[in-house]
User: What shape does this take?
Amino acid sequence: MADAVLREPAAPAGLPDSPGTHKVVIVGGGFGGLAAAQAIVRRKTADRSIHVTLIDRNNHNLFQPLLYQVATAALGSNDIALPIRAVFRNRRGVEIMMADVTGIDRGRRMVELAGLAPVAYDTLVLATGSIYSWFGHDDWVARAPALKTLDDALGLRNRLLDAFERAELCDDPAETRRLLTFVVVGAGPTGVEMAGAIAELAHTTLDRDFRRIRPSTSRIVLCDAGPHVLAAFPRRLSDYAARRLQSLGIELRLGAGVEAIDAGGVTAGGERIEAECVFWAAGTEATPVAKWLGVEAGHHGLVAVQPDCSLPGDPAIFVIGDAASLAGPDGRPLPGLGAVAKQQGTYVGRLIAERLRTAGGRGSAAPAKPFRYRNWGQLAMVGGSSAVADFGWLRLTGFAAWLVWSAVHLMLLVSARSRVVVYVNWVWAWLTYSRGARVITRLPPSDRPGARA
Amino acid sequence: MADAVLREPAAPAGLPDSPGTHKVVIVGGGFGGLAAAQAIVRRKTADRSIHVTLIDRNNHNLFQPLLYQVATAALGSNDIALPIRAVFRNRRGVEIMMADVTGIDRGRRMVELAGLAPVAYDTLVLATGSIYSWFGHDDWVARAPALKTLDDALGLRNRLLDAFERAELCDDPAETRRLLTFVVVGAGPTGVEMAGAIAELAHTTLDRDFRRIRPSTSRIVLCDAGPHVLAAFPRRLSDYAARRLQSLGIELRLGAGVEAIDAGGVTAGGERIEAECVFWAAGTEATPVAKWLGVEAGHHGLVAVQPDCSLPGDPAIFVIGDAASLAGPDGRPLPGLGAVAKQQGTYVGRLIAERLRTAGGRGSAAPAKPFRYRNWGQLAMVGGSSAVADFGWLRLTGFAAWLVWSAVHLMLLVSARSRVVVYVNWVWAWLTYSRGARVITRLPPSDRPGARA
Assistant: This one.
């Protein structure tokens, strides 16, 4: 596969020969896009100026691994979001656009935007990530919301806390039971972390807050079509996680694919579960990048890329992160982790800067080394003060893994202010078993009457 | 006026004679309602049990004085909100209901709720506060949102930050100008603080974040129908605030009542101001308490109360805080401050506990002393690191007042966690001129196209 790279020209024909500005457009301000922009501005050479345009539909970079803590009222929404403009405020060569991409005109080298003039590129980096997929069941989207954006997290939190409030006021025992049943669909890291956090919220934090209901009697059900929780982890860790989740009182339904989701609850693996709150953490698919590019989409809509992350046949376009499909050294596709996206972003940013340096006439045109993923391991919280950590050479479970999990996530937070605030919130929660963010910011429009008290 | 109190029976005829539980219902979980509930549970006597039901449409107590900092991206929404249940989690005699009150049946002593069975009371405390009033212009409500709830604050923040984003992408100079014009209607403390915070955001925090626009050229206009800013403050402080606001580049339009608000902007005092963002901080009125009680509403819908905060002719009902009208020792009505509501809540809570103690047969039935407001002064921020403080005997302006302002507000925050987090955010902002919370949580539904990048 390295051969394919060696055959790529070091300074592709597509790059403009004029000594003017080279326009790099990056779509997506997640781990991948941000890393690419940072790598370019750090490597920018004096003899050739690069202009970077970073386009995202949101104004912030979101630290997805902690999003479930916003949804379960442990953290505030601002603690894990960083305004993208703040990252590049002192880099005059980087421009941020908050806009929606609608397509790509590869012939004219233009990125098309909703309601705005298209933006021209010389090099394009697509780092648009993945979106949740409800397996074609459009009617499930509203009933079983997923966790991808800040707005999702605040919506989930409102829904979760509101269920307890409504149960407290409910006279019908069956309806109370239904309100206090929480179903999480999908037992990957997000689903496991959500289920664990809901269990902690219900069984510990909220238990003394109510007078008529006992939140500790809440049912939390985690279902997955596959036979294991955390299927991407080694079996030993996966089994530990399953035992740990059960000890937290979470009911596991493995091998139980979801058959129906309606206003009353869920049917999974033939079993009917009456539940008010159903959260979706199952399938994801790539954003419509393949459609934009006019290439064939692979499994889950992913775009297959060359070992240097460029599009086959078009070295001016890179696809990185969750939107791209690239095999690791073992031949298996790289996982959809922030770490992969970040490393690919840094790799591609350096590659672009290097191409321009050599194209500018200084130095020799060395062929690009293929991207190599450095596996820093994977982590997942499993309730309270417990986690699983897989570093390949080292596998941890329980409290030790949780300590590693906490340290790694604090380190990975982009802003120092976030680190301090998240740390304060965690220490506080750990000391007091309390969750400061259990605030319902707005009432679900359909559920509550409109009269103003 | 004290005579009116002396004529009130100490243990009113309305109180039940049975030795059963005395039911106190408190409507509103703001400063007043929370203080009343806390005073009752602290004074609860052993020989007579009291059951307190606190009803609020939100699940949290909101620290209103810092709400403008959430709206202007200095603080997160959870930093100033405290779950009401968390305050009373260890008080079994206090029950919280998240519900909407629709009316009061004084004959049957019932509080009527939307979609729920009514709740019976022996003693009722109404602490429902005030709501904004657009002087009957219903079409202004959506165009010029006000700042009362967390949801309002997040909506205002989204609107404010989105205006800068849209200006950056705008090709039409007149429209760019309009997007970068911010009008605040009403020059009381909230309006002055909003205008000052917007000026700081535009002129300092955001200035280097954009490439095509210069946020420092934003117009911020503060208009008021009256001749002075901060009219409730002594003239010297009011004049200082006006000079300070002008030095921050804020255009004052005093004596300029608003005549029209439409999608394009505002007309005030005969002048047309094209502006995208218009924020309302003008008239307030009481919640519909007078209507619920079937009594005549006074000025701004307030309910006139006896010197012991009870309703004339019905000693089982108290109205406190912004919903009540009561004259101070100087004969002027008490101001609509959190401090007044809090002191009235504590006073009424103690009075209720005392009444029951004496009604229970222990001790003598001493007549209730009238409520006396202890004036701890009033404070307002006027931009950056400057404030005005009026303690009667001491009047401060500028940095000294700001230090007092900061200390007082940190102290008044209900939870210790909030204190730490708010302090970290403030120190951070002060050191870095940055605002960590400038995150757009969701896109305004009507303004932006729906395509997903």
